[in-house]
Amino acid sequence: MATIISFISRKGGTGKTTNAINLATTLSGMGKRVLLVETDTNYTLNTLRKMEMFKGDNGAPPFEILGSQDSEVADELMRIKGKSESTLLWWTAREKPPTRASRNFVW
């Protein structure tokens, strides 16, 4: 079963993205499979994932990132739901509470 770690705050600048990236990098370095799911409408990670500093030796990032603008978010979450050794980092800066659909993915 996947482990879920959430970083949630309506206020900007609280360190949600920074902490999620640092934790993802650390867990990935420990050999864990990590998927970051970003629901922040600023899409900070969608920008950061293109930067060289987040690419591994093979040119790919050391962890997967899904942004709320990615159409396959729901399918990917269902795919990893039952897998072991997965860590899901989920954070948001939305002003609205999560939708019913997004709550279905918190297991």
Describe it for me?
The chain has 107 residues and is α/β, with parallel strands linked by helices. It has a single domain (3-103), classed as P-loop containing nucleotide triphosphate hydrolases (Rossmann fold, 3-Layer(aba) Sandwich), CATH 3.40.50.300. Helix content is 29%, strand content 21%. It is built from four helices and four strands, in the order βαβαβαβα. Strands 1-4-2-3 form a four-stranded parallel beta sheet. Helix 2 (44-48) links the parallel strand 2 (33-38) and strand 3 (64-67). The longest helix is centred in the first third of the chain and has 14 residues, at 16-29. It is globular. The model is unreliable at 95-107 (pLDDT under 50).
Task: Spell out the key features of this protein.
Rossmann fold; globular; 29% helix; 107 residues; 4-stranded parallel sheet; alpha/beta; 4 helices
In short:
The protein has 107 residues and is an alpha/beta fold. It is built from four helices and four strands.
* Helix-strand category: alpha/beta
Main beta sheet strand tally, sense and closure: 4 strands, parallel
Please tell me the CATH architecture by its name.
3-Layer(aba) Sandwich
Strand content: 15-25%
CATH topology (fold) name: Rossmann fold
Mean pLDDT rating: 67
Give the % helix.
25-40%
Count of helices? 4
Distance between the termini: 9 Å
CATH class: Alpha Beta
SSE pattern, N- to C-terminal? EHEHEHEH
Q: Can you lay out the helices and strands and say which pair or pack?
A:
Elements: E1 3-8, H1 16-29, E2 33-38, H2 44-48, E3 64-67, H3 73-80, E4 86-92, H4 100-103
Parallel strand pairs: 1-4, 2-3, 2-4
